[in-house]
Amino acid sequence: MPSAKVTSKGQITIPAEIRKAFNISAGDEVMFFDMGDGRVAFRPRTGSIRDLKGIVPKLNYVPTLEELDEGIEAAVEEEYLDSVRRDPAADASKGEAA
Asked: Domain limits at 32?
């Protein structure tokens, strides 16, 4: 199993076989995770928030506040109806208590 020594500055060199296996190059960021049992895991940080640019299509108009409110209301109503369909007894009892 590969190992590395910690320098006086708290730095380590990731062994070449690990860098190759995880496709880690100079300048890449690595995230460390405390596993809570005396172990530490790491993984390369991949991608950037900028990579998400263009994933959501642009609207050819700006929705009005009324349209936004209607959309929110429709989503809340749909969620409520879905919950009633999943467990009608639970939602019926809530309605009686109100």
From this structure: 1-47
- Tell me the pTM: 0.43
36 and 59, same domain (yes or no): no
Tens-digit pLDDT profile for residues 37-69: 999 898 888 777 887 888 888 878 888 999 999
Category of 81 on φ-ψ map: left (φ > 0), alpha (ψ -120 to 50) or beta? alpha
* Residue 47 zone, left/alpha/beta (φ > 0; ψ -120 to 50; rest): left
- The C-alpha atoms of residue 8 and residue 1 are separated, in whole angstroms, by 23
Residue 13: partners with Cβ closer than 8 Å, 6 or more residues away: 4
